[in-house]
């Protein structure tokens, strides 16, 4: 019981917003933990922080998305050609480029608004040379909308969420660990 109160107190601390920002930047580049995991404790601990949490999460996601896009863009000439030649073919690469060109807005929506790993599609967008302004602009809108919806729900039902966290802290913690582990295993199979 002491651990959950400690964590909720830390989630309400002054450094919590910076931690959310940095973790969300990292999530957009290489972490496989959804930003909602970083957002939830702070809003559950203090519902007055819902708007600042949504804003720093959206900003961190956008900055991380810019970094991931350009990582994908820059590694194409060095590593990309080797990856395509070794694990795929230029014909398949051209098909992927055509799909991105034809269905780009849907792919952006998918990456931004769903739990599909944002970093993977952002790296691919850079790798495929998709229009960066369009990709990052549209993904910023839908990622912010996704975080705003969660922020509103957490703000609206904060008392209920706080009661659930206090009552089911350890089962929820174990469930989160198991889900994260399964996600890592599934990524290894892909």
Task: Explain what the structure shows.
The structure is a single chain. The protein is mainly α and 190 residues long. It is built from nine helices and no strands. The protein has helices at 2-11, 16-29, 35-45, 50-87, 90-113, 118-128, 132-156, 158-167, 169-189. Helix 1 crosses helix 3 (35-45) and helix 2 runs parallel beside helix 4 (50-87). The radius of gyration is 18 Å and the shape is elongated.
Quantity of strands, as a count: 0
Radius of gyration: 18 Å
Extract low-pLDDT stretches: none
Described by strand count, sense and barrel closure, the largest sheet is: none
Give the class from helix and strand content and strand pairing.
mainly alpha
- Overall pLDDT level: 80
Overall helicity: over 70%
Query: How many separate helices?
Result: 9
| C-alpha termini separation | 38 Å
Order of helices and strands: HHHHHHHHH
What is the strand content? Answer: under 5%
Inertia-based shape: elongated
């Amino acid at each position: 019981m002491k651990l959950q109160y400690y964590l909720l107190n830390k989630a309400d601390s002054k450094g919590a917003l910076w931690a959310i920002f940095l973790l969300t930047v990292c999530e957009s580049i290489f972490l496989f933990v959804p930003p909602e995991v970083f957002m939830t404790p702070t809003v559950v601990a203090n519902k007055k922080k819902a708007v600042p949490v949504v804003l720093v999460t959206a900003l961190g996601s956008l900055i991380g998305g810019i970094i991931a896009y350009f990582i994908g863009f820059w590694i194409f000439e060095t590593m990309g050609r080797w990856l395509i030649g070794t694990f795929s073919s230029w014909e398949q690469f051209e098909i992927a480029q055509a799909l991105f060109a034809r269905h780009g807005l849907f792919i952006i929506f998918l990456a931004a608004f769903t739990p599909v790993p944002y970093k993977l599609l952002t790296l691919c967008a850079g790798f495929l040379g998709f229009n960066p302004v369009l990709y990052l602009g549209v993904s910023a809108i839908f990622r912010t909308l996704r975080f705003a919806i969660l922020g509103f729900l957490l703000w609206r039902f904060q008392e209920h969420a706080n009661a659930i966290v206090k009552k089911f802290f350890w089962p929820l913690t174990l469930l989160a660990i198991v889900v994260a582990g399964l996600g890592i295993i599934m990524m290894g199979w892909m």
